[in-house]
Amino acid sequence: MTTTVGVIGLGNMGGGMAATLARHAFPVFGFDLSEAAREKAAAAGVTPVSSLAELLETIDIVILSLPKAEHVEQLCLGREGAQENEQDAISLLALGKPGLIVIDTTTSTPETSRKVAAALATRGIDFIDAPVSGGPKGAATGSMSMVIGAEDDVLARAMPVLEAMSGTRVHVGSCGAGNVAKIANNMLAACHLISTAEAVSMAARAGVSPEKLLEGLNAGSGRSGATQVMFPSWVINKAYDSGFSMGLMRKDVGLASDLTARLGMELPLSATVAQLWDDSSATLDDSEDFCAIVQRTDPTLYG
Ligand code: NAD
Fold it and tell me: Domain named 3-hydroxyisobutyrate dehydrogenase-like NAD-binding: which ranges (predicted)?
């Protein structure tokens, strides 16, 4: 039996995921509040729908790619306090059919994943948190990596769809664990971007070109996603067009600080880096590319 897939949130990531699944011959229906996003998805073989109710009529699996945890919670459970006849009450909980699987690829919070999963389970709907890495290019080519929080039996049912959308999947634990792992990943990415900017700037002042330094770093133990992907693709050429916004990275850095605080931990290096991301809002607004943070390290070299 063919699995019919719905994708909610057709932005930089969700648009690419929907197009990838359509290329893999899944019937794909897409919903986004933005008409422009729906039109772009339609051009990539996705059937756009203009309401959540219409989407939920036909699908077996729904993928979420929304900005933040609060969007996930509202879409899954409806706005708290909304009356049954209000638009905001429309939710997966109210309209989803038993047997539906929700794959949430949003970088969200572990608490949101667990809360939503528990509520949806009361209607026989399963929930997986599967946040992703790999950017819009990874989404559009099906080469993203996923860290997954799920029960084994639900994961097995979702696997054909997950395999079509991603190159690597690591099952890190039960529901919520995917977001713990993703928050840890982005905490490191946020540190690496700034520390690489400092290392490249120092070496440039000492007479080694950024290009040559990166070649050396990538052959040595200083390599990371920042030296292998971010600097060569978006920083050294001053393109700053990764498709990942400053606002979303600030959100992820905030998620790491919140999780650290909830655990009662003090992590001095991460706290300093979080402060730098916070301070950067004085000169870089949320719509900028996240890589532009390096301009605060050395405006002459990176500006
Ligand atoms: P985006 O802003 O490009 O896309 C989000 C889309 O969701 C928008 O098109 C918006 O209109 C839509 N949307 C918001 N609320 C909605 C609702 N209630 N119903 C339907 N549509 C709604 O964001 P993005 O860059 O695609 O990121 C999506 C998620 O993936 C975020 O959690 C982000 O942190 C994560 N992520 C992004 C990247 C990246 O490189 N962009 C990489 C890894 C993870």
Answer: 176-295
CA 265 to each of CA 71, 92, 107, 259, 261: distance values in angstroms, whole numbers, following the listed order: 28, 35, 22, 9, 6
Task: Considering the candidates 182, 212, 238, 251, report the single residue annotated as catalytic.
Answer: 182
Q: What angle do CA 4, 168, 120 make, to 5 degrees?
A: 45
pLDDT in tens, 82-98: 666 666 668 999 999 99
Residue with CA nearest ligand 1 atom 20? 32
In 122-167, alpha helices (H)? 135-141, 152-165
SS3 167: strand
What is the number of residues in the chain?
303
Is this complex's ipTM strictly greater than 0.95? yes
Q: pLDDT tens, 188-200?
A: 999 999 999 999 9
- Would you say 136 and 16 are in contact if contact means Cβ atoms under 8 Å apart? yes
- Ligand 1 site, residue 259, Cβ cutoff 6 A: no
Active site residue 251: no
Which among 176, 178, 185, 148 has a CA at the least distance from the CA of 270? 185
Interatomic CA distance for residues 286 and 197, integer angstroms: 20
The dihedral built from the CA positions of residue 123, 124, 125 and 128, taken in this order, carries a sign that is positive
The partner residues of 101 in beta bridges, in order of sequence, read 61, 126
Q: Ligand 1 centroid vs 2 CA: distance in angstroms?
A: 27
Closest to 292 measured CA to CA, from 193, 223, 212:
193
Q: Alpha-carbon distance 94 to 33, whole Å?
A: 19
What residues does 145 pair with on adjacent strands?
Answer: 133, 168
**Structural domains of the chain in order of their starting residue, each with its CATH number:** 5-175 (3.40.50.720), 180-302 (1.10.1040.10)
pTM over 0.95: yes
